[in-house]
Amino acid sequence: MNRLAYALALFFTVLTAAFLAVPALMSMLAGVTQIYARGIASGLTIDWILEVWRLYADTIGRSIAIAMMTLVVTLLVGIPLAYAFVVRPSALTRALNELMTLPLAVPGLAVALAMLQLYGNIDWFRRSSLFIVAGHVIFTLPFMVRAVASTLGAIDIRTLEEGAASLGAGPLRRFLDVVIPAAMPGVLAGSLMVVTLSIGEFNLTWMLHTPLTKTLPVGLADSYASMRLEIASAYTLVFFIMIVPLLVAMQLVARSKSRKGMSA
Amino acid sequence: MSTGVSVSLRAIAKTFPDGTRALKPTDLTVAKGETLVFLGPSGCGKTTCLRIVAGLEKPDAGGRVLFDGADVTETEIEHRNIGMVFQSYALFPNMTVAENIGYGLKIRKVPPAERAKRVAEMLALTGIEPLRDRRIDQLSGGQRQRVALARAVAIRPRVLLLDEPLTALDAALRDRLRTELDQLLRSLGITAIYVTHDQAEAMSLGDRIVVMKQGEIVQVGTPREVYFEPNSRFVAEFIGAANVIEGMASEGSIRFPGGQLMLPEPPAEGRCTIMLRPEAIEIRAPAGEDWTGTVQGVSFLGDRQRVTIAGAAAEMIVAEAPNRTRLKTGDRVGLAVAPQALRILQD
């Protein structure tokens, strides 16, 4: 009976995994197939990947640049915000916290629409990649704040700061010497989250981009819509190569964090 | 070598934003080099007092904190030059033991060579040299306590503030560290303010004890004064074990259901409450004694026995007997007490 239950569970797990993995594998395989309609028999090639590089290299670079800028802004805004939420909880910070998570519930399209109505006629901003960065910050900031706040909330950061103050450290010194190092695991986890989300973001970006500010996912949609299937597939492959190391790094950080937590 | 300052508190009070009065207006002076202990149950205002001296809380308007006569009420904690040991130690997890101890010196821009020398001194003083390069999460509770102390003393503070520094440790370790701490405070000759709810800690460490209750000072005195001459039922019962019993006083003696005792000078008249320490009661054979009772229970503690006695007073009383005295439940006993061991309580 037990063995049967185990076999069934295994079967369904494999089935579910296959349901998710097979299309992705097929798509990546298609990206290196000479002629998709004739299958693998037509031979393997990296021409399509080179073609993607020729057509869309700028979107890859831009995506990375946007992700890094988004990261910088969420770090500069998110860490002090998380600190304030933890150390000085008040009606104001609670309201701010709720308000900040709102863009997660509202569809990205609606957020983008609001941004276009508000800032769309500031011409230089509308044309610049910074417009997309602003959208990504709105979308990813809550993830950074949550990750940092939960790390700071788990330790007695107030007493640590009081300890530093008693030894003569002023507010800025305390923040740099004590708060930031204590928040580090959360900052790392939040950073990987922000970068991953920013690189993969499509909803908002699709509304906010201009033909000159296409990002990787927007380019991907574009290639699916207007290129041969092999190019779109090769593009997917490129996307995977970029995003998988990030996901692995995120897992490693999360695991080393939980191991540390157990030993402490 | 006496270091440190005298600390004066003038009319300091603390009302929290929600309206609770943590501390009623309080005046107190700690002499240079003295160890003063704030003792009381949780919520009595002792920690609030300490935090006001530290600069972690601001007293209500009108309150003043003076270090050697200079007003520091408006001075931020980081400029007060105090050393503080927290109950949770507040050690920095991202720094080694040596870096923790040297942190205050680094902030004060002490040159690295001198800093290293001072850190080595502190490690030696607290007996933790082998732990120099350990991370904080590799230390035991007692080791952390020593690092916290070394870190606070390293900056040569004007006053050392200790907030329940031994409470987080187990009983055996607490006793040992209490002795070490006492020796350290004596040898440094530093002005120290110590907060605890543990009366044994207060008695062994304090030059003077400040007993607090519900935001007020109840009594200030040396350990012997507060133990032998408590000014209230609260102090009598909070410090050590005490029998607080009621009797009828007249003509220099006091009557209980089980007999009578001589009163000390000056004697009281009428209904009054007295305090009697268990070790001040001598258990004898009942014949010829003015005060008698019946043994209700005996608990053997090793070095002595604790005997519960019924019938002597309206309530049960507790006495101590030497460990080899044979006593059993139901024995009739006589109770002898020297008049000066009696203390008449006013409330």
Account of the protein in words:
The complex is a heterodimer of chains A (264) and B (347). With 264 residues, chain A is mostly helical. Chain A has one domain: MetI-like fold (Orthogonal Bundle). Helix content of chain A is 83%, strand content 0%. Chain A has eleven helices and no strands. Chain A has helices at residues 2-30, 47-87, 91-105, 108-119, 123-127, 130-154, 157-166, 171-200, 203-208, 216-226, 229-263. In chain A, helix 10 runs antiparallel to helix 11 (229-263). Chain A is globular, with a radius of gyration of 23 Å. Chain A starts with a helix and ends with a helix. Chain B has a six-stranded mixed β-sheet, sandwiched between helices. Helix content of chain B is 24%, strand content 32%. Chain B is of the alpha+beta class and 347 residues long. Chain B folds into two domains: 7-235, Rossmann fold (3-Layer(aba) Sandwich), CATH 3.40.50; 241-345, Nucleic acid-binding proteins (OB fold (Dihydrolipoamide Acetyltransferase, E2P), Beta Barrel), CATH 2.40.50.140. Chain B has helices spanning 46-54, 97-107, 112-125, 141-154, 171-188, 199-205, 223-228, 233-238, and strands at 7-15, 21-30, 35-39, 64-67, 70-71, 82-85, 159-163, 192-196, 208-213, 216-221, 243-250, 253-256, 259-262, 270-276, 282-284, 292-300, 304-310, 317-322, 332-336, 343-345. Chain B starts with 6 loop residues before the first strand and ends with a strand. In chain B, a hairpin with a 2-residue loop joins strand 12 (253-256) and strand 13 (259-262). Chain B contains eight helices and 20 strands. The chains are: A mainly alpha (264), B alpha+beta (347). The interface between A and B is medium-sized, with 21 and 27 residues.
